[in-house]
Structures are given as structure tokens and as C-alpha cells.
UniProtKB/TrEMBL annotation:
It comes from the Bacteria. The keyword Nuclease does not apply. This is Aminotransferase class-III. One of its GO terms (molecular function) is identical protein binding. Keywords: Aminotransferase, Isomerase, Pyridoxal phosphate, Transferase.
């Protein structure tokens, strides 16, 4: 037996894990509802905010600093308050807070020999994570055979761009959607359709934009997108290295795609030889299938796919014919040992909690959430409206859709104890990313109750 395996099987390790789990459960069990801050902690909390503002060069978006303990979707802040976290680090905390399975996986990682895994030196868990992702991605026919792990969604997306440019050289243009978001690197800022995010930065990539599927005009917007695509392909023959698509527009406002819409675009792209990249950094795990491209039946078009956020370690999956012929892919870090271990535990939990399927947890919870939101639409006409997103990507439009209205309601929600965040532009919207592994209808009811209180204040202040 390997020395490492002997350590893992040592009964003292199991005993220690059990003691930690029991202690964590005992101290977090009372967090079953939101609660206000503790006045005795206010001075210390204000000091934290001031220290952050000084060292970061600006204030935090929210006055949010966790105490380090939570219970499911509830999290205790360092001011003693408890919030209902329905944003989860913008989709990262899929098991909520202080999740016992993820804590157990983190302890397993803590007794491994190194904190980080890398391209040169890695442990067998890296291989298992890679195999699991490839298996999930190809389970309904997508020809994705290879994968590279990475430390961030931006790095996963950078690697996707590298693969596409290398494969299609010397093509140097990208096609993306209006309001696309891909990341914060220089290349990805160029791809992202937010001029403010690249203010003062050199334009690294030439990008051509298409309109996304409009919920109010699906046929017309599909026709516009296809017509614009054909115009671009004719104007720049052989110049496009990839088509970049979020199956559900993420930062763009959580507007769903559809099988017909994407097929109408992907077929002429195939004919033109333009590779298709599905950016699933935010959408993975949140629809009826592990990947949203599977949810929309687009397996045949998946050339390169990226994942991140909820997977803890990020990754770029790709077809065999995209395997580079030069050493363009390499990283000192492919991920932390803890990220890989908890990523595997996350994949296990997504399956064991029945998140997937047309009648699986994700779609049922969405239907219930949307039903409750519609009641608020009727109660507060002109203050909240749909559409409400897809799967466990929930969204609504506050007030008149201005950024001022969205920020106002977001901050009122925070004060009431409900965490949601901005997305979209014209209109600006508010989104929820409830943790799919643990969210129940009771949690949704609690969120609706807090949103109701927030809207009552919003109506008088907007």
C-alpha cells in the first residue's frame, strides 16, 4: 500500500473529519433565517470596510465580509447579520455555505502533499476531474475528447481562444453576441461588449457582433441574427477564427437561447468552417442537463466548451482536431488541490440531488420561482417584470430598467437580507443564482418574502 493511501485510511483522519463536521453543524444549525447585525460588531465591521477600501483603492460593491460560517444558502457576515445568499459568488457556491460534503472534500485535499496542482506536477484527482468533465460533455454525442484545467474562467476562455486561433490561423476575427461577456483579460475585454470594461486598453481582437434572441420577438430577432451573420461571413471570408456564444446570455441579462435560434446560426458557421465555442462558465449545472448546449440540443456543434464557477476548478474542453500542433497551452497552476477535490464532490452532488432532467430539480425550481415572481409582478405593477431566465438562472427587471432602479432595489434587498446582483443593460436587471445542490422551495419562499419587503420600500423610493 502507498504511504499516502495508508494516511487516507488512518482512522484518526475519519475521526477528525467527523469531529469537524459535528462542530460545524452545531455552530451553524441556528442559521435558518435572516437576522440583523450585532451592534457589538459594528465598529469592527466598519474597520474591515475601511481597511478594504484603503488597500483595494476603493470601497467594496457591498459591505459584505463573511464570518466564515453559514448553513446552506444562509451566510453569517462578520457584523453578525445573516443573509440569504442567492447570488453565491456569482454562481460559484453551488453547495451553499459550510456544505459538509465540500468541507469533507477540502479536508481530503488539505492532507495531500501540495496546495496547488500544475501542468508539470499533478495528482491523480486531476485526471479524474478531467475524465469526469469529458464524460459529462460527451454523454449525448458532443465530440469533445480533451480538456485542460485552469485556475479561472478567464483563463479557460483564453485557452479556448488560443485553440480557435491556432486551428484557424491566420484568421483573426471573432463573432460574438451583443452584450457578450467573456472575462477581464485584455483579449476577453476586447470580446466583451462593454466599452467601459476596456477603457484605455488596447484592442486585442477584432470582434463582430450579432443580436441575441429577443424574448418578445423570437422569429424577427432570429432572422436579424442570421442575416447579419451571413453578411459578416460574406464581408470577411475566411477571416473568422470562432463564433463565441453563451447559450444563455449571462451578463447580457439572462435571456435564454433556443435550439432553433442556435441551429439557424451554427449551420452556416459550419458551412463556412468557423469553429463554435460555447462559454458555459456561468451556465454549467443550471439547466436540464449538465451543459446548456445539451439543454438546447446543440451537441453536434460543440467544438470548444469552457466551464468554471460552480466546478471550482475551471476547464476548456475541445475536439481532437483542435489539439494544438505547437506548445501554446501550459500553466504553472491548473488548479488548487482543494478546488479539484471539491469540484469532484460538486459533480457528485449535482447528480445525487437530481438537478438534471426535463423534470429535474433545476427546472422544477425555476417554474416555482417564476410563479412566485409573477405574483409580485401583479402585486407591484411597474416595479418588477419578467422574463425570468432559465433553469437556476433567475432574473427580473426592476422598475423602468434603468441602472439606478436596479441598484436601488439591489441595495434594498441587501438591507432586508437577500443577496442578488446586477446584470444586463437597457434594461438593467437583477439576477439570482441559487445554489442548485441544496435550494428548496422553502428557501425560494423565504427569498420571495424578502423581495416583497424590498419592493414595498422600492415603490416609495423609486
Amino acid at each position: 500500500m502507498l504511504h499516502a493511501e495508508s494516511l487516507r485510511q488512518d482512522p484518526r483522519i475519519a475521526q477528525a473529519k467527523q469531529l469537524i463536521a459535528e462542530a460545524m453543524r452545531d455552530h451553524s444549525a441556528s442559521m435558518t433565517d435572516v437576522s440583523p447585525s450585532d451592534p457589538d460588531q459594528s465598529a469592527n465591521y466598519q474597520t474591515l470596510i475601511e481597511q478594504f477600501t484603503s488597500v483595494r483603492g476603493g470601497p467594496p460593491i457591498w459591505p459584505y465580509f463573511s464570518s466564515g460560517l453559514g448553513n446552506g444558502p444562509y451566510v453569517e457576515l462578520a457584523d453578525g447579520s445573516v443573509k440569504l445568499d442567492f447570488i453565491g459568488g456569482i454562481g460559484v457556491h453551488g453547495g451553499g455555505h459550510s456544505n459538509p460534503d465540500l468541507v469533507s472534500a477540502s479536508i481530503d485535499a488539505a492532507i495531500e502533499d501540495t496546495v496547488m496542482q500544475g501542468n508539470l506536477q499533478q495528482n491523480p484527482a486531476s485526471i479524474e476531474m478531467m475524465q469526469r468533465l469529458v464524460s459529462l460533455a460527451s454523454e449525448s454525442g458532443a465530440p469533445l475528447e480533451h480538456v485542460l484545467l485552469s485556475t479561472s474562467g478567464a483563463m479557460a476562455n483564453e485557452n479556448a481562444l488560443k485553440l480557435a486561433f491556432h486551428h484557424r490561423q491566420p484568421a483573426d476575427r471573432i463573432i460574438a453576441f451583443d452584450n457578450a461577456f467573456a472575462g477581464r483579460s485584455i483579449a476577453l475585454a476586447a470580446l466583451t461588449d462593454r466599452p467601459a470594461y476596456r477603457n484605455g486598453l488596447p484592442k486585442a481582437i477584432q470582434v463582430d457582433y450579432l443580436p441575441f434572441l429577443h424574448p418578445d420577438h423570437p422569429e424577427k430577432s432570429q432572422r436579424w441574427a442570421v442575416d447579419e451573420l451571413k453578411r459578416l461571413l460574406k464581408r470577411y471570408p475566411g477571416k473568422h477564427a470562432a463564433f463565441w456564444a453563451e447559450p444563455i446570455a449571462g451578463e447580457g441579462g439572462y435571456y435564454p437561447g433556443s435550439h432553433d435560434f442556435f441551429t439557424a446560426l451554427c449551420e452556416p458557421l459550419r458551412e463556412a468552417g468557423v469553429p463554435i465555442i460555447f462559454d458555459e462558465v456561468q451556465t454549467f449545472s443550471r439547466t436540464s442537463r449538465p451543459f446548456a448546449f445539451q439543454h438546447y440540443g446543440l451537441d453536434q456543434f460543440a467544438d470548444i466548451v469552457t466551464v468554471g464557477k460552480i466546478t471550482q476548478v475551471c476547464a476548456t474542453l475541445y475536439r481532437n482536431d483542435f489539439h494544438p500542433k505547437a506548445p501554446i497551452l501550459s500553466q504553472t497552476f491548473t488548479g488548487s488541490t482543494s478546488a479539484i477535490s471539491t469540484g469532484l464532490a460538486t459533480l457528485d452532488a449535482l447528480q445525487s440531488t437530481n438537478c438534471f432532467g426535463a423534470d429535474g430539480g433545476n427546472m422544477k425550481r425555476h417554474a416555482y420561482f417564476a410563479e412566485q415572481l409573477q405574483k409580485l409582478v401583479e402585486k407591484y405593477p411597474g416595479s418588477i417584470s419578467g422574463p425570468f431566465g432559465e433553469g437556476m438562472m433567475i432574473v427580473f427587471t426592476p422598475g423602468d430598467g434603468t441602472l439606478d432602479h436596479a441598484k436601488l432595489l439591489m441595495n434594498l434587498m441587501f438591507e432586508e437580507g437577500l443577496l442578488g446582483f446586477l446584470c444586463g443593460a437597457e434594461p438593467a436587471r437583477l439576477r439570482f443564482l441559487p445554489p442548485p445542490m441544496i435550494t428548496t422551495n422553502d428557501h425560494i419562499d423565504a427569498a420571495i418574502k424578502l423581495l416583497d419587503r424590498s419592493l414595498e420600500k422600492f415603490v416609495s423610493q423609486k
